[in-house]
Amino acid sequence: GEERWQNRNWYAGNAKLVLKAEEASGINDCYSGVNWMKYTVSRHYGNGKTVTEKEQTICADIPQKISRKELQTFCRMQKDLFFTDTKRSSQVITVLAMAADHAGNLVQKPAEYTMVLDSIAPKFVASVCSQVNHGGKFLNGCYANSNVTYTASVKERFLKDILVSVNGTAYTLKELQEHREELGIASVTMDET
C-alpha cells in the first residue's frame, strides 16, 4: 500500500514512478520537441549504505525531415521506473531528472522525487515494568505500593506512532500525555535513540 507522510510517499512493498518530460505545444508555440531526459537514482538503505546508480539518458529518435505537425508527437517523453522492495532493509529512494529540447533549452531546475520503500514491521524489543519499592518487583506478581515505571523498547527506522493499551483502550503517546492525569500517569517520555 501507499501512504503520504512527512511530505513523502511511503510504500509497504514495490513501487512505480513515472518520469515525464513535456514541452509546451500550443498551436502558436514554437517548439523543437524533447531531445533527451536524464535521471539518476540514489538509494539510502537502513544499514547506512548509500548507492547512487549511473546516470541514465533517454534520447528522442526524431527523423531528419519531419513536418511541424509530426513533431508534436515528440513533445513528450516518458519513462516508467520500477522499484523492488528488498524485504531485508528499508530504502529511501531519490530520483533526480532533467530534460532538454532540440533547441538546447534545459529545464531550469532538476526535478527531484523522494519515496520510501519500507515493508519491515517494527520490532518490539523489550518491555519492563517496575516499581520503586521492593527492588522493582511487584508483590504477589501484580501489586505495587509505590510509583511504577513501564518501559517499552521498539526498533524501527521510520517510527510513525506507538499505541499503548491502558485498561483495554489504545492510546498514542500524544493521547497518553493528554490523558495522563485521569489515567494516573506521572509522565510520558520518548527517547528516540
Would you kindly provide a written description of the structure presented here, covering whatever features stand out?
The chain has 3 helices and 13 strands, in the order E-E-E-E-E-E-H-E-E-E-E-E-E-E-H-H. The protein has 193 residues and is mostly beta strands. A hairpin with a 4-residue loop joins strand 4 and strand 5. The model has no long low-confidence stretch (mean pLDDT 83).
SSE blueprint:
Elements: E1 2-5, E2 8-11, E3 15-22, E4 34-45, E5 50-52, E6 56-59, H1 68-71, E7 76-83, E8 91-101, E9 111-117, E10 123-131, E11 148-155, E12 163-166, E13 169-172, H2 173-178, H3 180-183
Parallel strand pairs: 2-9
Antiparallel strand pairs: 1-2, 3-7, 4-5, 4-6, 4-8, 8-9, 10-11, 12-13
Q: SSE order in H/E notation?
A: EEEEEEHEEEEEEEHH
How many strand elements? 13
Counting helices, strands and paired strands, the structural category is mainly beta
- Biggest sheet descriptor: 7 strands, mixed
Hey, roughly how much beta strand do the residues contain? 35-45%
Can you give the helix content as a percent range? under 10%
Poorly predicted regions: none
Brief summary of the model shown:
This protein has 193 residues and is mainly β. The chain has helices at residues 68-71, 173-178, 180-183, and strands at residues 2-5, 8-11, 15-22, 34-45, 50-52, 56-59, 76-83, 91-101, 111-117, 123-131, 148-155, 163-166, 169-172.
